[in-house]
Amino acid sequence: MPQLDTSTWFITIISSMITLFILFQLKISSQT
């Protein structure tokens, strides 16, 4: 199992948070 360096983890986490944020915004905007 290859080790992931810190930058890879950072990019993965940031991408996930951005995706969740966008989905959350879309959900909010579709309700109004």
Architecture blueprint of SSEs:
Elements: H1 6-31
Determine the fraction of residues in helical runs and give it as a percent range. Answer: over 70%
Mean pLDDT: 89
Q: Work out the helix count.
A: 1
Shape type? rod-shaped
Rg calc: 14 Å
Low-confidence stretches: none
Beta percentage is under 5%
- Counting DSSP E segments of at least 2 residues, the number of strands comes to 0
Most strands sheet: none
Distance between the termini: 46 Å
Pfam families: ATP-synt_8
Keywords: Acetylation, ATP synthesis, CF(0), Hydrogen ion transport, Ion transport, Membrane, Mitochondrion, Transmembrane, Transmembrane helix, Transport
Transmembrane segments: 6-26
Membrane topology: Single-pass membrane protein
Notes on the structure:
The protein has one helix spanning 6-31. The N and C termini lie far apart (46 Å). It is built from 1 helix and no strands. The protein is an all-alpha fold.
Short description:
This protein is mostly helical. 81% of the residues lie in helices and 0% in strands.
